[in-house]
Amino acid sequence: MLVLTRKRMEKLYIGGDICVTVVRLEGGQVRLGIEAPRDVPVVRAELRERDRAAAAAALAREAPAALEPAEADWPMRVAPPADRPRLGRDHQPCVTRSASLNR
């Protein structure tokens, strides 16, 4: 871990496109301003841990026991819930083998 000392309104850069500015110092708290591209998530650590725990709990509630697919079914994808279409990398709906056989 890199530890730096900064005064109020001093900045530090992470990479070429993220800037962190010390905006205010009060008692035991530091207020930071963060400038980052919209595609870079900036999340407080406690929220990140909460979201991970919630996602793990939801997965444990919803996921059925893992089953080994038969060798013939290996390339087949599992169909998404009917109310939420599965999207591929190009954000277009994926076609599953089971869906294409039912047409």
From TrEMBL:
Provide the Gene Ontology terms for cellular component: cytosol
Q: Kindly state which keywords UniProt assigns to this record, in alphabetical order.
A: Bacterial flagellum biogenesis, Cytoplasm, Repressor, RNA-binding, Translation regulation
Provide the GO biological process annotations: bacterial-type flagellum organization; mRNA catabolic process; negative regulation of translational initiation; regulation of bacterial-type flagellum assembly; regulation of carbohydrate metabolic process
Localization annotation = Cytoplasm
What does the record give under GO molecular function? Answer: mRNA 5'-UTR binding
Q: Where is the composition biased (Basic and acidic residues)?
A: 83-92
Segments carrying the region annotation (Disordered) are: 71-103
One Pfam family recorded for the sequence? CsrA
Where this protein primarily resides, as one coarse class? cytoplasm
Is the Membrane keyword given for this protein?
Answer: no
What InterPro entries does the database record attribute to this sequence? CsrA, CsrA_sf
Q: Which domain of life is it from?
A: Bacteria
The family assignment reads: Belongs to the CsrA/RsmA family.
Assembly, in brief, is: Homodimer; the beta-strands of each monomer intercalate to form a hydrophobic core, while the alpha-helices form wings that extend away from the core.
General function of this protein: A translational regulator that binds mRNA to regulate translation initiation and/or mRNA stability. Usually binds in the 5'-UTR at or near the Shine-Dalgarno sequence preventing ribosome-binding, thus repressing translation. Its main target seems to be the major flagellin gene, while its function is anatagonized by FliW.
Tell me the protein's name.
Answer: Translational regulator CsrA
Protein species of origin: Tautonia plasticadhaerens
Q: What is the lineage of its organism?
A: Bacteria, Pseudomonadati, Planctomycetota, Planctomycetia, Isosphaerales
